[in-house]
């Protein structure tokens, strides 16, 4: 459960910070912690240094957005989707991405 809560903080942080640069955005304490967790756990290796995507999908703007999946379905990136994506990374793969989260 702690990992899930931390991951939600990560999404909040990356959504808040966008690509405008660290000093340009005032983050809440929870968002700042999420950004720190993302950086210390290597999330940027796949999701981009500012959460804008790379080998893995973008995290910036993820919360409550529609996600097109490889099976042709569309899901909303809500709490349940994020939890499933973190705990069972192969359950739903975003269109355009093949890699599964380690």
Features of the shown structure:
2 strands, globular, 4 helices, 102 residues, 40% helix, two-stranded antiparallel sheet, mainly alpha
Supply Rg.
13 Å
How much helix, percentage-wise, in residues? 40-55%
Distance between the termini: 18 Å
Our estimate of the beta-strand percent is 5-15%
Biggest sheet, open or closed, and with what strands and sense?
2 strands, antiparallel
Low-confidence stretches: 16-21
Kindly report the oligomeric state of this protein.
single chain
Cα shape: globular
Tally of individual helices: 4
Structure class:
mainly alpha
Number of strands: 2
Strand line-up across the major sheet: 1-2
Return the average pLDDT rounded to an integer: 79
**Helix/strand order:** HHHEEH
Short summary:
This protein is 40% helix and 6% strand. The chain is built from four helices and two strands, in the order H-H-H-E-E-H. A two-stranded antiparallel sheet has the order 1-2.
């Amino acid at each position: 459960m702690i990992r899930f809560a931390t991951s939600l903080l990560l999404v909040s942080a990356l959504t808040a910070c966008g690509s405008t640069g660290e000093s340009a955005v005032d983050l809440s304490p929870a968002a700042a912690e999420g950004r720190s967790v993302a950086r210390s756990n290597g999330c940027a290796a796949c999701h981009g240094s500012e959460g804008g995507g790379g080998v893995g999908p973008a995290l910036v703007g993820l919360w409550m957005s529609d996600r097109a999946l490889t099976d042709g379905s569309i899901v909303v990136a809500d709490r349940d989707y994020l939890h499933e994506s973190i705990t069972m990374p192969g359950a739903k793969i975003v269109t355009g991405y093949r890699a599964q989260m380690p």
